[in-house]
Amino acid sequence: MRMRVRRSGGFAGLSRSGEADLGDASQPELRAFVDTLRTAATRGPGQARDTFVYHVSLDDGPELTVPEGALPADAKSRLDRTLT
Fold it and tell me: SS3 for 57?
């Protein structure tokens, strides 16, 4: 499974992007990560200002727009490691 990530926003409004091969989509850990992203994408942006927004595409699926505040720390870390 291929993941493309673009992070935008923040105080300076900078955008960064990157791609990563996540391996076999049937792995339980990967399925849990994807489920976490989908759940986080359904949450609102919250009240925080100047936070990041992650735009995540997985293979041929729809792009997920995920506010930084909706991401668990481990998922955010994984997305940030993908950025170049």
Answer: strand
